[in-house]
Write a structure and sequence with these properties.
This protein is an alpha/beta fold. It is built from 15 helices and 21 strands.
Length: 465
């Protein structure tokens, strides 16, 4: 029986990072993955959806070409060819490298097969049983659907099927107005589908700052996306291209016809069949860990979406490295929850980090919010899209940034500046005192920061220490 210092189950962003990190530490590592290496992000999440976002964005810009003095005579978009672009992007990002993701070059073993726990330190991988001193579970999540009467019989798709479509739906209903639902809604609407979004909460992007989510709903509505918040689906009738959804919005009942239902309402940890009970684990909503990513079993770690925490690829990668480092050190480091960028790739983009003003006040902090509108930003005006705002939330006492919330062009890139300041415990003055290129989008953050009091002493203290 082969013995390993670390056995990693799952080859997505978290699992690959954990395996590579431990291998570079000189540990004997095995990774098991029954599907494609790269996980949901490469094949059904980040990469294909952002390629689809880009293709839809280009088509949308062609429709606005006359605003820039360009006369373009294109009558329609070829959805099938646009999805071929998606496929080329996946192939390039996934690369033509080794099938084991380069693990063998680091001295790690890759098992392209299913793994099941036999006991606390024994893992069955295919037909072989291996020993594991440490175990990292990074199996990710899978999409789930609410138990709506008739929906299973009528048929529906999730993100996994949506990224493989080659034919544009004519009438699409999206269940769920979170990041996944809103991105797909805009993609398909821009290519010409009739799109209705149904959300049971009272606003879209419910985890975002309320003003940001209101603007997102407004901008998407202006593109012709029908958004029904505070609405539930009571039942579904029909099948194939003739589905009928019976929905309730308060006391109002209505019927919505669709040929495709896209479910984007939730996900569940992919641990079925792993026999995690053999490790002494008792999963809750996901695998439960402490701040160091250690589970109830001291030699078992969990990283990435399987924890059901922040469902982002960059977080999964961070957690994979952290779990591997903590597994082989006497001085483990905790997960830093303060600095987690969150991005939604609608157009204009939504990005946030840290606390909203309301959340900060609920925690007893005395905070101030400074804001700036892209309508007053020269770069946005030049770009031809001056929609959106920047909101910086900082502690009134010391100027420390506790959160930032943006909707606007390139927001996912702009938020990195705030992340750096928060990670380094720099006050808002650090942004105001830093020279920003003109004209550029990050100037929106600078402009918001310039409205704040000067905490120069804290900046000097931080950089001098």
């Amino acid at each position: 029986m082969r013995e390993y210092d670390l056995v990693v189950i799952g080859g997505g962003s978290a699992g690959l990072k954990a395996a590579r990190t431990a291998a570079r530490l000189g540990r004997k590592v095995a990774l098991a993955e029954e599907r494609e290496l790269g996980g949901e992000c490469f094949w059904a999440g980040c990469v294909p959806t952002k390629a689809m976002v880009r293709a839809a964005q280009v088509w949308h810009m062609i429709g606005r070409a006359s605003e820039f003095g360009v006369d373009v005579r294109v009558s329609r978009a070829d959805f099938r060819r646009a999805m071929q672009y998606r496929d080329r992007v996946i192939a390039r990002v996934a690369g033509d490298g080794p099938a084991d993701g380069g693990l063998s070059r680091l001295g790690a073993d890759f098992f392209p097969m299913r793994a099941v726990f036999e006991s606390s330190n024994r893992v069955r991988i295919g037909e072989e049983i291996v020993g594991a001193k440490q175990i990292a579970i990074a199996t990710g999540t899978y999409p789930t659907a609410p138990p709506i009467p008739g929906m299973a019989e009528a048929g529906y798709i999730t993100n996994r099927e949506a990224v493989t479509l080659t034919t544009l739906p004519e009438r699409l209903v999206v269940l769920g107005a979170g990041p996944i639902g809103m991105e797909f809604a805009q993609i398909f609407r821009r290519f010409g589908a009739e799109v209705t979004v149904i959300e049971r909460l009272d606003r879209v992007l419910g985890s975002e700052d309320a003003e940001i989510s209101a603007l997102a709903e407004r901008y998407l509505g202006e593109e012709g996306i029908r958004i029904l918040t505070g609405t539930t689906v009571e039942r579904v009738e029909g099948s194939g291209a003739n589905k009928l959804l019976h929905v309730a919005q308060g006391a109002v009942r209505r019927e919505i016809r669709a040929d495709t239902i896209l479910v984007a309402t939730g996900r569940a940890p992919a641990i079925d069949g792993l026999n995690v009970e053999a490790l002494g684990l008792r999963p809750d909503r996901g695998l439960v860990t402490d701040a160091y990513l250690r589970t109830e079993a001291k030699h078992v770690w969990a990283a990435g979406d399987v924890r059901m925490g922040y469902l982002f690829t960059h977080v999964a990668s961070y957690e994979g490295r952290l779990a591997a480092m903590n597994a082989f050190t006497d001085r483990p480091e905790p997960f830093d929850h303060r600095v987690v960028p969150r991005c939604t790739y609608i157009d204009p983009e939504v990005a946030s980090i840290g606390l909203t003003e309301r959340q900060a006040i609920e925690r007893g902090l005395r905070v101030v919010t400074q804001r700036f509108s892209f309508a007053d930003l020269d770069r946005a005006i030049i770009f031809g899209d001056a929609r959106g705002i920047v909101k910086l939330v900082y502690d009134e006492l010391d100027g420390q940034l506790v959160g930032a919330h943006l909707i606007g062009p390139d927001a996912s890139s702009i938020v990195a500046e705030v992340a750096l300041c928060m990670k380094g415990h720099l006050p808002i003055s650090a942004i105001a005192d830093t020279m920003h290129a003109y004209p550029s989008f990050p100037e929106a953050v600078e402009a918001a920061a310039l409205s704040a009091p000067n905490y120069r002493g804290q900046v000097e203290g931080a950089t001098g220490g």
